[in-house]
Amino acid sequence: MDKVYDKKGLKKKSENLSDWYTNVVLKAELADYAPVRGTMVFRPYGYAIWERVQDVFNKMIKKDGVENAYFPLFIPYSLFKKEKEHIEGFSPELALVTIGGGEELKDPLVVRPTSEMIMYEMYAKWVHSWRDLPLKINQWNNIVRWEKRTYLFLRTLEFLWQEGHCAHSTHKESEEMVLRALDWYRQIYEDYYAIPVILGVKSESEKFAGGAATYSVEALMPDGKALQGGTSHDLGQNFSKVLDIKFQEKSGENKFVWQNSWGLSTRSLGGLFLVHGDDNGLVLPPKVAPIKVAIVPILGKKDNEVLKYCQKVKEALENENSEFPGKVTIFGDLEKSYGFRISETEIKGIPVRVEIGPREVEEKTLTLSFRIPEMTKKLMRLSEVGGKVEGILEEVQRKMFEKAKNFLTENIREAKSYEEFKSIMGSTKGFIKSYWCEGPSCEAKIKEETKATTRLKSLDAKAGEGKCIYCGKPAKFIWYFAQAY
Amino acid sequence: MDKVYDKKGLKKKSENLSDWYTNVVLKAELADYAPVRGTMVFRPYGYAIWERVQDVFNKMIKKDGVENAYFPLFIPYSLFKKEKEHIEGFSPELALVTIGGGEELKDPLVVRPTSEMIMYEMYAKWVHSWRDLPLKINQWNNIVRWEKRTYLFLRTLEFLWQEGHCAHSTHKESEEMVLRALDWYRQIYEDYYAIPVILGVKSESEKFAGGAATYSVEALMPDGKALQGGTSHDLGQNFSKVLDIKFQEKSGENKFVWQNSWGLSTRSLGGLFLVHGDDNGLVLPPKVAPIKVAIVPILGKKDNEVLKYCQKVKEALENENSEFPGKVTIFGDLEKSYGFRISETEIKGIPVRVEIGPREVEEKTLTLSFRIPEMTKKLMRLSEVGGKVEGILEEVQRKMFEKAKNFLTENIREAKSYEEFKSIMGSTKGFIKSYWCEGPSCEAKIKEETKATTRLKSLDAKAGEGKCIYCGKPAKFIWYFAQAY
């Protein structure tokens, strides 16, 4: 077992991001490969972060009146194919149950790749009057998409997510909901993951199959590639017309509802690990870290006294009502060497470490060491600890965000010519801001020649008078381009 | 919409339990039928109760060091069939994915009907040394079993549950875990659902496919049938031998681990609804009720004053740190009639109702009315409310439990002859305690002739000298028999 935390075996993030990532995800015990190709196990340390996201996100949505529910995993194929763009978009990724209870099924069952059809079939049954609106339901569940190339967390055959689905009486109200959900995703990324994101609308070719418009938050990974972090779809009346979801207005008139759906998945955790980690392993922001402080006893002659003091330190550092609910633990397998346990706190990305030996016991002090190099060690008396750690964790969280923010800012470039565009995509990568005519053929050519796709048009984009970076024809808006995960 | 809460449409529990049940589940908006036969939607009001169970249960298991994780939905068929009894038991209930991404799969995928095989395949990879034990992991997920006859909550093609899976170095430790989990289920039923249960071990024919022994908690439904409420399996070394899960002892010796698994599902909610409901609808115990107090404004000339006062009452009744975390709401659609809203609080089984009209505003009082007839109305001054409601809710919870306990006690009978046994099963039903020789043929005959199965041998059963109720041969233990859901 000792070799699991052998630093020699750890790949360097600076040398090969992809190898480093897989290595760290496995070594920090965030996840493991499962028997079916492309599937993975969320191990307790990784799943605890998702539980934290669930907790935070549930508070946000419940405050807004969104209620949790659960809809079936199986969607009849005959129902799924009712919306044409929807089935076209998802068809290559479907897993189908064809045998149930030993018998071949007449109508195969789609294992949900998203729940619009199954949920809205029910909405059609439940919505009758303006009084039934808005209908705001979210569910936390598992999703299956038959991906060809898979990658732990970032792209797997099965993943976990939340999907919110609302029906409203007006398009305006639905659009407001779309942007509210998008802002919740911004908060998860910026305030919890310490990852700055760009908010905006996707191009026609990149939008959700069956939707009217797709909004997303996009983050930048260390290799200069973008990660689509969460999406919020304005579905217009596309689905309500197909499934006949009508309501009676106060005036008596019958109208189709306006809908939206929005999802954040465990994919986002992949982004979290990629952005902050370093050559020594994972680095977790305090707000989502399952363990916020690891107390590491230095064992020797005075074991009992040291362990007793560790317990006192633990109690002093614990705060039930913390904004940082991660555990304070006397860390690791005490039969392992001191050095091994220290490495383990690093690989697992625990924000704060407190090493306790006979000297600390005698002096009644403790020293906080930090996982990020931007913080210097802090020595304090045990009697003075109360209430101090919260502020320190805030500082760590802020510094992590600032560092990621600087990286993002440095890697948003404006390309003045297509030559420059290609040159950037061939070297540093990152986001490129360019005018684009919004023609799908320019978009396709750029992708073919540079691997960069349109990521989004920023929410605050203003119409200007520019020229398309590819064809040179008049273009109204600046778009963000990047290679993407 | 008004007809949804039309009492005329409500079936009587006393006349036909099954019709009443389905009717109440639909009308209280706990669940609805979904497009695929045998599947259902957990609507927000029903799902909120499950969220409450999750919350309570997570606290219990985490305190004991069990960690949550997530394992894949899909199990390769080739892996699933490795344990012979396991595949034999589950084979008739499997849903199989045979097509993925448009291609036929060589090895079909089993949609998990339980996760022993997929989890233990990973355990074999993770467990090497005594230091890795015990390994205690739980997951909350969705399960698919191809049931022929389905029933909302109680038996559906897909259901939600938690499944805990532990590996230990000794059988003794594993057995202790089995009983600890069983006691958690007892707590959920007795302390939260207000349903008394009997704890014990199942017969050979009723045990889990592939396990060594199965323990369960059994509850009694109003029609005299038993509901298996939660099961905890001692798996012995059956799975560790098939999947080669070995660990090295301190002594250096290699041994197979001892395992157990235990599950509580959304089926239990069906029991909750069946036990406490009455002719007016659902009756929910305060500890799991999503809404604990419904404030019902009596609207008329003084709407504004009444609504303002309702808000004050709401604030006075709310208690963030309550053992009864259900919401206090100003209830219902205020455009609906007063009578309609009252009926709605009844159908939804809300434990406490507070009707507020101009008189209450003037006198600064409120009256608590209760969903259960065993409580009498309580008039109090608004200024005196603080802290009082917790105790009252405790009283409601206790009275509900006592009533159910009395029903259970009255319906456990000892049959002195097989004639008496048959007569009881043909009339009142309930549990029958009888000596049984533990021979599978007597068990099968009794089932064939009376529809009663062996439910369990009580945990505190003591060996005696009796005669089998069926064959008259010597029998050591008294067993519980009942017809079952």
TrEMBL record, chains A, B:
EC number, as in UniProt: 6.1.1.15
Entry's Gene Ontology molecular function annotations: ATP binding; proline-tRNA ligase activity
One Pfam family in the UniProt entry: tRNA-synt_2b
Main location: cytoplasm
Annotated PROSITE patterns: AA_TRNA_LIGASE_II (PS50862)
SUPFAM superfamilies cross-referenced by the UniProt entry: C-terminal domain of ProRS (SSF64586), Class II aaRS ABD-related (SSF52954), Class II aaRS and biotin synthetases (SSF55681)
InterPro entries cross-referenced by the UniProt entry: aa-tRNA-synt_IIb, aa-tRNA-synth_II, aa-tRNA-synth_II/BPL/LPL, Anticodon-bd, Anticodon-bd_dom_sf, Pro-tRNA-ligase_IIa, Pro-tRNA-ligase_IIa_arc-type, Pro-tRNA_ligase_II_C
Single biological process term from Gene Ontology: prolyl-tRNA aminoacylation
Reactions catalysed: tRNA(Pro) + L-proline + ATP = L-prolyl-tRNA(Pro) + AMP + diphosphate
Enzyme class (EC, first level): ligase
UniProt keyword annotations, A-Z: Aminoacyl-tRNA synthetase, ATP-binding, Cytoplasm, Ligase, Nucleotide-binding, Protein biosynthesis
Keyword rRNA processing assigned: no
Location of the Aminoacyl-transfer RNA synthetases class-II family profile domain: 37-285
Localization per record: Cytoplasm
GO cellular component: aminoacyl-tRNA synthetase multienzyme complex; cytoplasm
Role, per record: Catalyzes the attachment of proline to tRNA(Pro) in a two-step reaction: proline is first activated by ATP to form Pro-AMP and then transferred to the acceptor end of tRNA(Pro).
UniProt subunit comment: Homodimer.
NCBIfam families: proS_fam_I
Domain remarks in the Swiss-Prot or TrEMBL record: Consists of three domains: the N-terminal catalytic domain, the anticodon-binding domain and the C-terminal extension.
Family per record: Belongs to the class-II aminoacyl-tRNA synthetase family. ProS type 3 subfamily.
Protein name: Proline--tRNA ligase
Species this protein is from: Candidatus Woesebacteria bacterium RIFCSPHIGHO2_01_FULL_38_9
